[in-house]
Amino acid sequence: MNARCTLGVIALLFLASIAWAASNLNSSRSNIYRLTYPSDLASPAQVKALLAELDKMGPADEAKLKQWLAANFRRFGIADDRIKKLIVLPPSKEMRETGIILLTNTADEAAAIAVTLKSSKSNSSE
Question: How far apart are CA 39 and CA 10, in angstroms?
Answer without folding.
Answer: 27
